[in-house]
Amino acid sequence: MSILNSSLRALIKTLASLYFDFVYKPSQSRNYKAVSGKVLGKAELHNMIDATLDMWLTTGRFNDEFEKKLAKKLGLRYALTTNSGSSANLLAISALTSSQLAERALKPGDEVITVAAGFPTTVNPIIQNNLVPVFVDVELGTNNIDHSQIEAAISSKTKAIFVAHTLGNVFNLEQLQSICKKHKFWLIEDNCDALGSNYLGQATGSFGDIATLSFYPAHHITMGEGGAVLTNDPQLRKLIMSFRDWGRDCWCPPGKDNTCNNRFGFQLGALPEGYDHKYIYSHIGYNLKITDWQAACALAQLDKLDDFVAARRKNFEQLSQGLKDLEKFFILPQAVDSAEPSWFGFPITVRESAPFSKIELSKFLEANQIGTRQVFAGNILRQPAYTEHNFQLRIKDSKLINSSELKDEHYAMLPNSDVIMNQSFWIGLWPGLSSSDLDYMISKIHQFMEEANG
Questions:
Q1: d(CA 111, CA 150)
Q2: CA-based nearest residue to 162, from 130, 132, 202, 199
Q3: CB 448 within 8 A of CB 372
Q4: Where are the beta strands (DSSP E) in 165-219?
């Protein structure tokens, strides 16, 4: 880079810093206490300016550096960026359908154990790949998979377990790893809500055969829209990359040729010998890459991850202590032993004995400028997308049924998922909320309780 180029870039960044200080002065108080949000600074702006001035646009130098730093941060060999956490989940499942995995490949009709109380795009890739989701219930308090139900849900068709760390709360990885090792299942770890969490001192996202992340603005770090797929397995890395990059067999980065030094030396499929390796497709894939502009933003965010995680844990503790005296009315979140969650939100379950409903409390909080959200889909099998779309499924140890056949007797097999649907919601604890914001939230919940109890 020439001296003039460097000088002009420095001048542009100086002007951008002045603009940032003028337009984005930090606010000491937020009228609306949102459940989530992004915390951006000058470093993100400077990186995005650099990426813009490069005029490269697709994945490039910033993406390369981000993937390497992210993998190192989590103690993994590989991190592959993609355009969303949902795409990351799709790539994780799709990669496991590759015939290159021989007898371990997921085939149509094979079963994947998951939960009904979660986010749709953990379940959707299972259905989209013509696999059978097998739903087990969750535990109240942790809101994570009830591992005691897994063994009974296993059949001769079961090949994998795919579940999320709900709202950043770590599921019992020791138990799930043990089950997967015993039965030779794949473990796919949806880590989208849990970046920065640890289990037995090890980063979540590094336990599964494949794990996923989301970098949507609500998440721990952001690049706007974006996500990542994580693995330690070089074969899985190649398969994930293939599905992400149009399904091609070639592993050359964008803009580069002949990484294999054998570009015209392949004969695959029914193609003629010597067909250009850059245009050989070994999978039915997608184009799910990100731009270097997004990676530039995330690279600056990654430097702040430890501070963001510390703030989330501190805020969680403040909310926990502030609401502890209301446990008569609420089931408050709890972590499993050996886990250090990096909390995404603060879930609250209204007990059935409480003299008020979740909806009444949520409406009160929203009327008082406190954001609330559902625990994602509640019982996902009650959602219209699943009652109206015909696919095969099982619930725990039940027989195979079509989703159009779901009845009350089936929902009754997932009682805690229904409790989460009917009685649970969550409030924010992201780093943009101050201690005084949290005190206000705590005081308003207490005010509601006093009024509800007359």
A1: 13
A2: 132
A3: no
A4: 186-190, 198-199, 202-203, 210-214
219: Cβ–Cβ under 8 A, 6 or more apart, which residues? Answer: 36, 85, 192, 193, 195, 213, 344
The answer to whether the CB of 408 falls within 8 A of the CB of 379 is no
pLDDT score of 14? 94
Give the active site residue among 46, 147, 219, 277: 219
Name which of 198, 188, 187, 191 is nearest 219 in CA terms. 191
- 219 as an active site residue: the answer is yes
Distance separating the N- and C-terminal Cα atoms of the chain: 71
Contact between 98 and 283 under an 8 Å Cβ cutoff? The reply is yes
**How confident is the model at residue 117, as a pLDDT?**
97
Residue carrying the six token digits 């960026």 = 81
Cα-based distances in Å from 204 to 112, 340, 359, 379: 20, 10, 33, 25
H helix count then E strand count, the chain: 15, 16
CB atoms near residue 199 (< 10 Å) = 24
- Amino acid letter, residue 36: S
Rounded to whole angstroms, the Cα distance separating 70 from 74 reads: 6
Count of C-beta atoms within a 10 Å radius of residue 128: 14
> The dihedral of CA 216, 220, 221, 226: what is its sign?
negative
> Residue 329 above 90 pLDDT?
yes
At residue 310, does pLDDT exceed 80? Answer: yes
Angle, in degrees to the nearest 10, between helices 305-323 and 435-452: 30
Q: What percent of the chain has pLDDT over 70?
A: 99
**Buried/exposed code over 26-55 (b: 16+ C-beta within 10 A; e: otherwise):** eeeebeebbbbbbbbeeebbbbbbbbeeee
Residue 320: name the closest of 307, 330, 306 by CA.
330
SS3 state of residue 204? coil
What are the residue boundaries of the structural domains of the chain, listed by start?
A: 3-48, 57-302, 305-379+410-448
Considering the segment(s) 57-302 as one domain, its CATH architecture is 3-Layer(aba) Sandwich (3.40)
Record the tokens describing residue 37, joined without a space: 């949000």
For residue 158, the SS3 value is strand
- Residue 130 DSSP class: T
φ/ψ bin of 168: left (φ > 0), alpha (ψ from -120 to 50), beta (otherwise): left
The whole-number pLDDT of residue 453 equals 79
Closest CA to 91 of 199, 264, 308, 238: 238
Tell me yes or no: is domain 305-379+410-448 CATH 3.30.1130.10. Answer: no
